[in-house]
Specification:
The protein is about 55% helix and about 10% strand. By secondary structure, it is of the alpha+beta class. It has a 4-stranded antiparallel β-sheet. A hairpin with a 2-residue loop joins strand 2 and strand 3. About 5% of the residues have low confidence.
Length: about 110
């Protein structure tokens, strides 16, 4: 995975335009992969410059896990975050109360 230091989220209108461009692709897997590649090609930056030239360039460089991780980060708002390793990390909620969660799970099982 190439270095990137910023994910710039797209507007809903930009996402819709990308999906419309891809919807004519008959194979559903190919359609979703190419659309995700187009999204990442438009959103991934390093030192202010695009990391990928196009969808194919992004898909040649990234694993499925890296694509998933980057798309999750975009869904969370993107932004500067230093180097992205592409490793899957849990989504952290600062208000999450693990003890309360475990207590609720225990109540559900009984």
């Amino acid at each position: 995975m190439r270095n990137l230091d910023e994910l710039r989220p797209l507007t809903v209108g930009q996402l819709l335009a990308l999906w419309r461009d891809c919807r004519e692709i008959a194979d559903p897997l190919e359609r979703v992969l190419l659309c995700n590649g187009r999204i990442l090609a438009r959103c991934c930056f390093f030192r202010g410059k695009p990391v990928y030239q196009d969808a194919e360039d992004a898909l040649e460089d990234l694993t499925a896990r890296q694509v998933e991780t980057l798309l999750l980060r975009l869904a969370e708002g993107g932004g500067p975050s230093g180097h992205f390793s592409g490793e899957s990390r849990g989504i952290e909620n600062p208000a999450f109360d693990a003890a309360r969660f475990q207590a609720l799970q225990g109540e559900e099982r009984t």
